Amino acid sequence: MKKTTLVLIPSSASGEAKNRTLKAMRASLAGVPLVDSSWIEYCLEKKALVEPTTDMYIRSLPARTPNLDVKFGVALLAAKCKENSELPMLGKNVHFMERNKDAKKDVQLLLREAGATHLPSWEAIIRLLKKKEHVTLLLGKSTKLPAAKQKEIEKVTSGAPGDSNAIISILTTNWLFDSISCGEVLPDAQYSADK
Questions:
Q1: Which residues of 78-105 are buried (b: 16+ CB within 10 A; e: fewer)?
Q2: pLDDT tens figures, 52-78
Q3: pTM for the complete prediction?
Q4: What is d(CA 24, CA 7) in angstroms, rounded to the nearest whole number?
């Protein structure tokens, strides 16, 4: 079986990837180095397959949230992978709601690779909420939480999501993507699906 040893992606002069792709996020979670595509030109110039120079390694993926410090998020994840340290979403119970099957499959794959426990059904969510375990609902771009599900959550948790005592977070997918870009789980506050 072939193993991916690096992923090529265009970068800016600051060492940050120009864009954040599924492939780049998956590679970051797996500890696979991201290398600027200028490495190919470098190999052609040397007429040999050579190691990338240190300035060719990408250390950061861009975030969608303004003013978020993502410097060295890729490097942080690579170090954690090398140490067999915890993945960023380990211990998180997450359910992703999305109508687009391809997008759903991609996000579920990222969640799994980030260490999250994917909750496959509404029944699984309610079961955990009854046990007072925290649940994160990620809503896709065109997805809203149905009113009936909202009422069921309020009934089980005895309060509206967003309360300080709530055991459920309802967030946009940018929370997951930015957490991967930063190499750690980010606070819920700026990713609320209600905004």
A1: bebeeeeeebbbeebbbbbbbeeeebee
A2: 988 888 888 887 776 767 677 777 777
A3: 0.79
A4: 7
